[in-house]
Amino acid sequence: MAHAVPTRATSTGARTGAGTGASGASGHTPPDVFGARTHLLAKWAMPLAIGLVYGYWAASIRRHGGPITGWNLLFGFMTVLAFAILWYVVRAVADRLPREGHAVLWGAFAGSALGFLYSGSGVAMFTCVLVSLLLAAAVAAGLYYHYATHQDAEEARTARTRNPVRTGTT
Asked: Which DSSP symbol is given to 15?
């Protein structure tokens, strides 16, 4: 069975072979299984699907095990609408922010979403606020770590392709 041989850089740092171009410094691009239309559909359908689960959850907490009423259904659908719209707005605004702001905004969204659900269950407000702040801090810290490590690696790859380091200079 034949395997492709990886290409090496020349003494000037330029890469040889067909692996150069849009594929980046590694010469490997992962395959895109789904088309652009599927990605666009998922981008808009995912917040709505998660919002439906969130709205059902909020409506079931609000009725406290009682019968399902029209007002309960209306509350659930309004919660879905508010959650989905806020998700779209947060996503649009967060894309324009630096990684710190991006992480804090998503953390605030997650913390306030949990706080809304948790406050409907009848717990003490201090407990609700504390749990919401803990989740918001955890989400913000996790996302900051994710964005910092991935963006730094991406910037390093971009810098290497723009300014290749010369090897073997005397």
From this structure: B
